[in-house]
# Entry
Amino acid sequence: MLALATLIVFGGLGILIIPYVRKVDLTEFFSGAEKYWLQVTIGIIFGVITAKAGWQIVELPMLQKTKTFFSGLIRPLNLDTTQIIFISVCAGVGEELFFRGAIQPMLGVWMTAILFVLLHGYLNPFNMSLTMYGIYMVLVIGVLGLMTEHFGILTAIVAHTLIDIILLRELSLAQVSDENINDKKNT
# Structure
């Protein structure tokens, strides 16, 4: 339900705001600067590479507690592939329309990226290892913003969706001890 709400609320707000802040109609905005097939191809390549790199960061020993925490949130949901794809598409479409489409023209690429990552909780002054991952995500999200401006919103939507699919799948399958999960829940 939260995924669907993300799509409807964020996506809906984005669609309402985009024509005013970008000074273009929605058809022109969705067309982008490049052909659809190029936007999709770039989105796939960027999404897969950055998700795999992000997972390598999460696998670092210094992020073990963070991995355990997030895996402890995701694994009990017993998400199947269809659910992971649904959640990821809702977030990819809804969040990109709102943040890259509507907010980015007002705040700029990098301030929007920082805001996005802050709202996801990855920049935390009390958890420096998580913040290191957050800095990586600011860079990734900033590039999504640049790709939106240079190629089109479809590039960012595809990349975001694939990043979420890959990371949700990895967290669902992560091998962490139940003892670590229980310790994390009790702290």
Notes: The chain has one domain: 2-182.
